[in-house]
Amino acid sequence: MNRAVDDTPAGGGTSPSPRLRDRIAAALVELERLHRELESLRQPAAMPLRERVSGGRRGGGPGFDEEACAARTGITGTLACWAGAVADRLPAAPAPAREAGPLAAFLVRHLDALLALPAADEAADEFGAAAAAARGVLRRRGADAVLLGRCPRPGCGSPVEASTAGPRPGGAVRCAAGHDWQVGEWLALRRTLTAPDGPGASGAPGAPATARPRTLPTRLAAQAAGVSEATVRKWASRGKLTRYGDFSRAEYDVDELAALAAR
Length: 263
Fold this sequence. Notes:
Blueprint: H1 18-42, E1 45-46, E2 62-63, H2 66-89, H3 100-109, H4 111-115, H5 120-140, E3 145-150, E4 159-163, E5 172-175, E6 180-181, H6 186-189, E7 215-217, H7 218-225, H8 229-237, E8 243-245, E9 250-253, H9 254-261
Antiparallel strand pairs: 1-2, 3-4, 4-5, 5-6, 7-9, 8-9
Helix pairs in contact: 1-2, 1-3, 1-5, 2-3, 2-5, 7-8
């Protein structure tokens, strides 16, 4: 889809609001992350073999998550559309590869040019819609994600998130700038993470505010403690771990998990 580009700032001649800048910057960070998480759902999954009945269809074979693939394609297409509009305005800037990571990085790098487009608010809406579609796919597939705090790496301060989806088996702990850790490290790591008003809060521009979580869903709790989900449930049934949440979704206290994992 081609965009008409002129020199009129977004909002009919007025400068874009700080709120719009923050909204777009945060959406670009999230879209790149969601695209990576969807990769783990896009791959063909082995299906259980079934006994073949004479005259029936053969059981088994690889499955393919078309919904996850469509969500990834939607993210890439949306980012490519707006990167193209920005590139038309900046002919000297090297064009990014048509992949979510390079496209999002290009738009973050040239955020002022994106905000100067007359339809910058439309870009924010499209980024939000693509992110919502991706989150819906991950939610339906049971992928959990929790914001942990700000990255402790010097000069970073980007949001750190633990997720059950990702390129590594068992999930990932990664900041928006690309620093990552083993899933089992983050209970110790959280002691160095900063809250939004802490010393690391001045990190990535436009990064959404994050706070340390007080509870974790079962799958993330098990990964963080380095045990099985069954062990987490057993701790709760024996009164060693407090269960929160509701009937359909259990959550467990982070500090209690850290104490149990340290024994």
